[in-house]
Task: structure prediction
Amino acid sequence: MIADRKLAAATAESQPLLDRRWIDPPFARPFVVLIPLVAIAALASIWVGRTSSGPAFGLGDAALARTILLEIRVPRTLLALLVGGTLGLCGAALQGLLRNPLAEPGLLGASSGAALGAVIVFYFGIAAADSLLLPLGGVAGSIGALALLYALAGRRAALVTIVLAGIAINALAAALTSLALNFAPSPYAALEILFWMLGSLADRSLTHVGLALPLMIPGWLLIVAAARGLDALTLGEEAAATLGYAPARTQWLVVGGTALAVGAAVAVSGVIGFVGLVVPHLLRPWTGHHPSRLLAPSFLAGAALTLAADIAIRLMPPGPELKLGVVTALIGAPFFLHLILRRSGELAS
Amino acid sequence: MTTLALDDIGVRYGARTALEPVSLDLRAGELVGLIGPNGAGKSSLLKAIAGLVPHRGTATWQSRPLVKMKRLERARTLAYLPQTPAAHWPIRVAELVALGRMPHLAFGQRPGDDDAAAVRWALEQCEALDLADRRVDRLSGGERARALLARALAVRAPILLADEPIQSLDPYHQLKIMGVLKSYASLGALVVAVLHDLALAARFCTRLVLLSHGRVVAEGRPEEVLTRSALEDGYRVEPFFSRHEGELVVLPWRQAGDASKRG
Result:
């Protein structure tokens, strides 16, 4: 049987190796699973709710249904989808850019910048936790962090400079956030800031969606425009440049896209960690390691994961609602540790 | 005649001059060896031609400056194999080599059957077709070098620049890779390779350029460049010359002026 197969392979030898699929295998397979998965998670997310007495299913009586659907459930579902998708997409793009599977959207300071922007709005008492000024502050903070990154690192900066500048911006934003907490006008305000930063999708409206989406879409497009450049970077920066995909261009497309999209996500949801780290990892054995092939599946898987985590929160018994950022960190941090241990094991062997 | 005309190409890193301005005409069909001691400016010259470092002067291909070309057209004209070529993700060799087809693809266009044919041709040239389905992180040093050279060949660019393509390879693979470069040149391409092995440079290259301290000190056919005085001045080594099968054999024999070790 094996001998037969070898013979057949030898006679038909030249044919398969001239077919395009040999160098560009079809990659529809992940979508066949991921698209239905996201659809199911989104429907479940609309169907599952929460009252003060615990989980609630369905939408209640007809008069109430419309209000619950449009003002509570749909915004929450949409935001979980958009925020999770953004985090997955940006995580995959950053890992491709840095050629390091441990990279994460929080790395460039966009998340912490957005968090700081929102905290400043809080601190000066300009807005209550549910106000729209909050996301605006977040977006401003994210863009400010990017502008600072650009000023620190320069247009043709080496990647390591960008990462180090990102770390510095993260540290600065964290310090200023602590400062705001330290001098919070009242313990209540400090608690409100802290809770907001934990990351949640509860009590959001369609206005939040409308605020985030116009920034997310250009962010996504910038990252999609960088897809080929990310593939070229597989061969290193010099080879990528001579293939017509200058690393500096790829770099700023990804960094700019991430700052816009993740900044907008953090601005409406607070900081939700580890989704961008974990999702590309789970997908790689399945999509292959080409950074460009990972982008769209990472968006879908990020959306599915975030929807699932947000549904899990609403299925919890009554009591103070668990924050989404806490759940993703509780799942993500051990996973991160596992990755590091496995990598160091690979290095040792 | 198709030429790559280098006009006044010079490279400075800050205050340090890596390469004094050089002017050379390199013809298609040639395998040009860039030789010279460490720090002579060989890699700087190659990177300047490839547009990877800020430099003065212009490189002109078929009377068009390379810098004036659109980025993908330029990438189709010039392929570059870095000194330490990388493969950062563990992808299949066939897909790695296919990255060399990127300059031929418009935005959003997937590779086609003709690209597959080019990948197959490049792998065959490097005797690496049997590696096609292997993961690049699981190759030996010699296999990896062949796969990455195949990536550069798959561009099918009329200019191929290779920075030390045979470093850290065993003698068999050194001969193999030099043979691949020579046969690619014989197809009508200009191949420029930085080399440290004088014997292989003499044997395979149609033309040599000897650099020392950022200057071209000699250039021409191997017999013209690899003279006793040029090697003593340029490399500070005393050469050993011989002939084998009618071809020149050059070996660095001892450090120049080191009379104490003379037997």
